[in-house]
Amino acid sequence: MPKYLLRLLCFTMILGALPVIVIGSVSYTIASRDIEQKVRESNLQILHQTQMRVEQVLRSLQLSSIQYVNSPLVLRAMKQPLNSSEFQEIRDLTSGFNNLQAVTSIDQAYLVNLEQDWVVSMRSFGKINDFSIRDRIGTYLTYTNSLFWVTQNKSSSKESVPVSAGMGEALTEQAPTLISSDNVVSMVFKIPMVPTNVKPKGFLVIDIADAELSSFLSRNPNSGDLYVLDKDQKYFLNDTNYGNKYDLLNQDIQERVQTTGEAQGFYSAEVEGKPVAVSYRQSPLNSWLYVSVVSLGQITAQSQKIAVVTGVATLIMLLVTGLVAIYGSRRMYSPISRLLQFTKGLDSPLPPAGRRQDEFIYIEERLSTLFSSERTMREQMKGQHVHLQEFFMTKLLTGKISEEDFRYQGELYDFPTGWSHLGVLMLQIDTLEGTRYEEQDRDLLLFAVNNMVGELIPSEIRFTPVMLDDAQVTVLASELSDEIQLKEWMHTQADWIRERVVTYLNLPVSIGISRAYSSIGDTPRAYQESKEALQGRVSLGSRIILHYEDIQPRGQVEAALYTQLRMIEDQLASAIKQGDEEKTDIYFTQYLGLLADKKLHFSEYPVIMVQLLSRVYQLVQEQGGDVAEVLGEKASMAYLLKLSTLDEMTGWFRKRLFLPVIRYWKEQEESQYMNIARRMIRLIEERYDRDLSLEACAEELNFHPVYLSRVFKKEAGVNFTEYLAEYRMEKAKTWLQTTDLKISEIAEKLNYTNPTAFIRTFRKITGTTPGKYREQQR
Fold first, then answer.
1. How far from chain centre, in Å, is Cα 543?
2. Residue 359 near residue 335, CB atoms below 8 Å
3. Is residue 473 over pLDDT 90?
4. Which chain regions cross the lipid bilayer (predicted)?
5. Is 293 exposed, middle or buried (0-12, 13-18, 19+ CB in 10 A)?
6. Which residues of 315-340 are buried (b: 16+ CB within 10 A; e: fewer)?
7. CA 379 → CA 411, 587, 731, distances in Å?
């Protein structure tokens, strides 16, 4: 299909299809937004109703508890000591707990007197240390409010206190049946009920099983997952164990509440890679968060029908638009087609076969070819003349043209005449690091510099500038004969070039200048002198202009220098092994400072740097590593020899050698730590039923016990003794669940000298005794 006809067809299609696509997209977006808004309002309403039901029960219980705390019976009891002989008064206090059952089912209640050291619960009476609530009193004392809510695991609130005969029976008759639940919600009153930092006289603690409160949660399937978080982001009041599924989501909700200060909200998020809609409300009563999480797929299910209908209608309209566009485009293209056939009959070059070209551009090119043949020929000849000049200069610099050939061909290229002496300037880029350029821009930058030199230096005093290898080379021609004046004149020209390059390109460059010569045949020698002058950057630095006379050797290197360098190399290698980047940098700075103090000739630097490179390679090989794999291609010796400045070399050593080797040594050391920890864990798994200690492992693995202890703690997160005890208790739990072995037999199988030590360890780790654990599992 012709290119312009294709453009007409595409433009017509876009003009007709764009309104259809926009209208369909907007209608679908509006419908989806309306559905999402309705779901949002519905979920927030459900959360509000759930919150109101739960808080109504809590407020009613709170009011009843306040009446109980302020009753004369409680106020009188808080001022006097009680003992088990005062049966009637204790019974009256317990009866007050039973009255609270009219509001909701209570799991447990405590009246605690801190001054007189007694506790009355729904089932017993005794000292504070006889009750499990003693572990919670310290936490309650940290709260400043006189009334607060606490959520906790029920195992920490179970009562197992023995009471005196008669007294226990009387209280047990009034106690309700405990609700089986994993968590409890505790309502705590300070007595007296005045917010203060002074230690209270006592507490009234009401424990409510979360199973009781969870019955008030909504069971509407459209509301998704509904759960409640306490102020510590712990799940409770829910029947489903969500585990860590919503941990990140809960943190996000907490941040939104703290940032915006709004008590409710609705937004979209992702849970396990799936989009969801989140609704939340914060309770002003106790700062609980009521959260509803609904899958967006469930929300947008209804909008999918709208999407299907909209898509079908859009496709039909696009098809009609396409048919109309094809017919109209062909009608509009017919005059252009006739003009194109006419231009093809003109005597001019045809376009390449297979090339699809715009018709108007083709017609323009055919017509302009008829009127510009002569001008095109002249431009082509002028361009070829410049290339021939550059080619000639390249051959002259490399010694492929004799003086006779120059005399014959030099006049053809308009080179300077009447000169007395010549000199070669070689310009190289010092480095591209720290500039706005990349390494792949180097050739383009040299081309730009070459053009600048051609414009800055008049053609009367220079031959054609050329690019040779990685440098820009210019041959200057002067009528001066005095060597000092010639040197100053060439230095002035070089400084002018360097200044303009820095100004326009912001590029660090250096220039090497050869000795002046009078015979054109000495040009190759002068070219090598300018190259050798540039090599002096290794010892003298970058961004400079160097004359060949200034870089001649200054004598032999002192033998003591290599001994001093070897000592610093040893310190540098030790710092790399220790992974100490700071010391590595300090020793390397000393190494470079020593080289600078000795003012070495540039030819000595590659030898010394290769010696240091070999030492770094040796560090990699000591750990069994492959140099090419650890350091990569850019850390090779060939790459080092290509570097031309000291700054490039020092940066290359730090970035390409020292840092990768330090990381490699650290990885190897960490791998050794992991291997030792695995072997110690394997010994625990194999010998848990025997007398196993850290010293025994050290003897088995041939390491010092202190070293093994540090390695195991780092990798496992716990010390050796704790890990061994936890592993043994896991074995014990398996036997308690699956066998009928006696507790004493299990203790013996786990190498405990007596059952008491085993029971104590089991209870410390699991929070319960072996017998109770077996009962719970069965």
1. 39
2. no
3. yes
4. 306-328
5. buried
6. eebeeebeeebeeebeeebeebeeeb
7. 21, 61, 92
Summarised one tens digit per residue, pLDDT across range 578-609 is: 777 777 778 777 777 776 665 556 566 666 77
Inform me whether the pLDDT recorded for 75 exceeds 50.
yes
CB 529 within 8 A of CB 424: yes
Quickly count: other Cβ atoms within 10 Å of residue 649's Cβ. Answer: 18
Nearest residue to 688 via CA among 719, 723, 724, 712: 724
The closest of 526, 55, 48, 78 to 264, measured between CA atoms, is 48
- pTM of this prediction? 0.38
Distance CA 250, CA 140 (A): 25
Nearest by Cα to 393 from 374, 415, 360, 361: 415
DSSP code of residue 462: B
Find the length of the chain: 778
Strands 274-282 and 235-236: unpaired
Yes or no: say if 602 and 595 are a contact pair by the CB < 8 Å rule: no
Two tokens, residue 53:
């039901």
| 574 vs 654: CA distance, rounded Å | 16
Secondary structure percentages of the chain, helix, strand, coil, to 5: 60, 10, 25
Give bridge partners of residue 513 from the DSSP assignment: 425, 547
Q: 622 CB contacts (<8 Å, ≥6 apart)? A: none
The whole-angstrom separation of Cα 126 and Cα 129 is 8
Contact call for residues 104 and 134 (beta carbons, < 8 A): no
Could you report the per-residue pLDDT of 276-310, keeping only the tens digit for each? Answer: 888 888 888 777 888 888 877 766 666 677 777 77
* Distinct helix (H) and strand (E) counts, the chain: 29, 16
Structural tokens at position 35? 């559905």
* 599: Cβ contacts below 8 Å, ≥ 6 apart: 539, 554
723-740 residue pLDDT tens: 889 988 998 998 988 888
Nearest of 190, 197, 198, 196 to residue 70 by alpha carbon: 190
